[in-house]
Amino acid sequence: MATLIAPSLLAANFANLQKDIEMINRSEADWFHLDIMDGVFVPNISFGFSVIDSIQSLCKKPMDAHLMIIHADNYIERFKNAGINRLTVHYEACTHLHRTIQQIQHEGMKAGVALNPHTPVFLLQDVIKELDTVLIMSVNPGFGGQTFIEQSCEKISELKELILKKQAPTLIEVDGGVNLETGAKLIAYGADVLVAGQFVFGSESPEETIYQLKHL
Length: 216
Hints:
Elements: E1 4-7, H1 17-26, E2 32-37, H2 49-55, E3 63-68, H3 76-81, E4 86-90, H4 97-106, E5 110-115, E6 133-137, H5 152-166, E7 171-175, H6 180-189, E8 193-196, H7 198-201, H8 206-214
Parallel strand pairs: 1-8, 2-3, 3-4, 4-5, 5-6, 6-7, 7-8
């Protein structure tokens, strides 16, 4: 399977968000990645439903929402109504993870679980077959533009082994410090989806940068 590319709108130009969305629509990107932060689970606040509702009709590709929030269960139906196709919650923020996964899938969305850099992969062994995606954080969540954590590669390898052992359908998504160098390394270790924010939107030609990531 070709690597999927999910540009993170957190790094887009919010003064002209439509222009960047249209660029992603034209590009070889596969998903829109939306980082949702509440200022509680992570020390930052990003956009909420008003922004998602306003861009829903503009996005011609699946919307992949990464919830860095507490009490995610309270908003699952609302994210579905906002047009989200894939919804990822954090292992560290969910008291009843299996129930949350079931609730996401009951609403017709693909369900993902994100792991912080310090959270070991083996904690997912009882739910891995239920998951559409596992998001490995290769930086600490909350801010863009951080330095890639090398240990993430070993986690991807461990996760790939678990997926194969359990014969799970799960995709491995990676977010944080992704560029051409780290992206190639991540793919070699087993990543299926690369999330890139500043590397894409901070480049001279974001569409060309997406093309380069897609063809690593």
